[in-house]
TrEMBL record:
<dbReference type="InterPro" id="IPR015422">
    <property type="entry name" value="PyrdxlP-dep_Trfase_small"/>
</dbReference>
<dbReference type="InterPro" id="IPR005814">
    <property type="entry name" value="Aminotrans_3"/>
</dbReference>
<keyword id="KW-0032">Aminotransferase</keyword>
<keyword id="KW-0663">Pyridoxal phosphate</keyword>
<dbReference type="Pfam" id="PF00202">
    <property type="entry name" value="Aminotran_3"/>
</dbReference>
<protein>
    <submittedName>
        <fullName>Beta-alanine--pyruvate transaminase</fullName>
        <ecNumber>2.6.1.18</ecNumber>
    </submittedName>
</protein>
<dbReference type="GO" id="GO:0016223">
    <property type="term" value="F:beta-alanine:pyruvate transaminase activity"/>
</dbReference>
<dbReference type="InterPro" id="IPR015421">
    <property type="entry name" value="PyrdxlP-dep_Trfase_major"/>
</dbReference>
<dbReference type="InterPro" id="IPR049704">
    <property type="entry name" value="Aminotrans_3_PPA_site"/>
</dbReference>
<keyword id="KW-0808">Transferase</keyword>
<dbReference type="InterPro" id="IPR015424">
    <property type="entry name" value="PyrdxlP-dep_Trfase"/>
</dbReference>
<comment type="similarity">
    <text>Belongs to the class-III pyridoxal-phosphate-dependent aminotransferase family.</text>
</comment>
Length: 441
């Protein structure tokens, strides 16, 4: 690893995202290097990364193939627009992603983040109905506790109140399904819980209120991520697919987290056996090395736009950095790394080991639930009266002091380690959590 850098002289200019800036700047947590499963802090400590950066470093930090691909591409060509021109890597990458996606999902539109991918998918959904002569289909249905990025579209269909509170009014013509979490019935579930498939039928209630002819799309995460790792009940996604098909509503899976191996397969939709009409992806798409996202569309959705004169711009949408050469190089190298290192094939085995080790925490102080699916988990803690989230935040800080990085969502400790994690490292994560929970009140 590289020698740790010194701290900046002035921390004031940088306005950090999702951060208590004044608190952070009084005692900054600085990382200066990363390799494999670890970060190195500015004071030289190794930190085991149990969050894959931010759900994204699926192959571990700084894999050689990805580093070299970015370096080589930067030396060859730094940038070219994808407006009325492009470059070979964009087409190669789209083909590789289509090969990994569920059958029939073989058209890829590139963005620069998961937030942009979600807003793009929502726009495609509305435009799809309009080009087919159903311009009244504009309503978008999200789900409680869902996270879909921080663009206005994604924020509008998301269902985490604190994220939405300060930015309204948001988009109109939006409604929400209930979430699927039921602690009384599904506590300590391994994989998909048995209870809750009927909650998909709430879409019928929404249809009765709004009429199906006004609804463009339903968007859900196959597994709710930032809302607390909520696996879908057995049969839930199948029922949602059935209802969307019956009513002519597009089904969007937000796979920004569940894509690229997180659930033991290239995409969560494959792992869970349900194919949507649109998939959003990002994060593991480049292993977090270069910002990139995308929307994978079914052939039927894409073909609906391909009418009229050939000079027609079929979708009046895009970003300056769509299909950026460095991002494409990073993504192609990431996919090669996942495949050459056997990370997709290793998925089922490593996920089973993860499940067994994580659930050994049952019975530790303050734990009221453990949820796991694929290489994801949430350790839910009982809340202190009047201080929701405080216990989990203290536990996470104690884990960090022991050299393990975990994430907090409400009063849950959320885990999403790189796919290269070993059983020994899994045990280290659970030992740090157990020790922390014994120390917090």
């Amino acid at each position: 690893m590289t020698t740790p850098q010194t701290l900046p002289n002035d921390l004031q200019s940088y306005w950090l995202p999702f951060t208590a800036n004044r608190l952070f700047k009084s005692n900054p947590r600085m990382f200066v290097a990363a390799e494999g499963m670890h970060y190195r802090t500015s004071d030289g400590r190794l930190i085991l990364d149990a969050m894959a950066g931010l759900w994204c470093v699926n192959a571990g930090h700084n894999p050689p193939r990805i580093v070299k691909a970015i370096q080589d591409q930067a030396a060859r060509m730094d940038f070219v627009s994808s407006f009325q021109m492009s470059h070979p890597l964009g087409f190669l990458l789209a083909e590789r992603i289509a090969d990994l996606a569920p059958a029939g999902m073989d058209r890829v539109f590139f963005t620069n983040s998961g937030s942009e991918a979600v807003d793009t998918a929502l726009k495609i959904a509305r435009a799809y109905h309009k080009v087919r002569g159903h311009a009244n289909r504009v309503k978008l249905i999200g789900r409680a506790r869902g996270y879909h990025g921080m663009g206005f579209g994604g924020l509008s269909v998301a269902g985490i109140p604190r994220h939405r509170r300060d930015f309204g009014p948001l988009l109109g013509d939006v409604d929400h399904l209930p979430h699927t979490h039921d602690l009384a019935r599904n506590a300590f579930s391994r994989g998909q819980p048995a209870w809750g498939a009927h909650l998909a039928d709430e879409l019928e209630s929404i249809v009765q209120i709004h009429d199906a002819s006004t609804i463009a799309a339903v968007i859900v995460e196959p597994v709710t991520g930032s809302g607390g790792v909520l696996p879908p009940p057995v049969g839930y996604l199948e029922r949602l697919r059935e209802l969307c098909t019956r009513h002519g509503i597009l089904l969007i899976f937000d796979e920004v987290i569940s894509g690229f191996g997180r659930l033991g397969a290239p995409f969560g939709s494959t792992a869970l056996g349900v194919t949507p009409d649109l998939i959003t992806c990002a994060k593991g798409m480049t292993n977090g090395a270069v910002p990139m996202g995308g929307v994978i569309a079914s052939r039927a959705v894409y073909d609906a736009f391909m009418h009229g004169p050939e000079t027609t711009v079929e979708l009046m949408h895009g970003y300056t950095y769509s299909g950026h050469p460095l991002a494409c190089a990073a993504s192609l190298a990431a996919i090669e790394t996942y495949e050459q290192d056997g990370l997709f094939e290793r998925g089922p085995e490593i996920c089973a080991t993860w499940e067994n080790i994580i659930h050994q925490l049952k019975g530790a102080p303050h734990i009221c639930d453990i949820r796991s699916i694929g290489l994801l988990a949430a350790i839910e803690l009982t809340s202190r009266e009047g201080a929701v989230g405080a216990r989990a935040a203290e536990a996470a800080e104690l884990c960090f002091e022991q050299g393990v990085l975990v994430r907090v969502a409400g009063d849950s400790l959320v885990l999403s380690p790189p796919l290269i994690i070993t059983p020994e490292q899994m045990t280290r994560v659970t030992e740090a959590i157990h020790s922390a929970l014994q120390q917090v009140a």
